[in-house]
Design a protein that fits this description.
Mean pLDDT: 85
Largest sheet: none
Number of strands: 0
Low-confidence stretches: none
Amino acid sequence: MAKGKGYFGLGTLVSIILCIFLGPLLGIIQRIMDKKIVAALLRFFLGWNLIWFLDLIWLIIKGDIFKIINC
């Protein structure tokens, strides 16, 4: 859905700040908005620890959220 980088196309710096506080929740919402239900389910079950950390690192390095799968 969002063509920009990070969560909801908000940009890298804002997305890093949001990731620190709301990363797991925003990751699930972002993947649902992208119509990637399987990826949203993976984030729901794994995103509270491992994927949240990878999201934060990926946002700092690449400026976009971490995507395990694209379906």
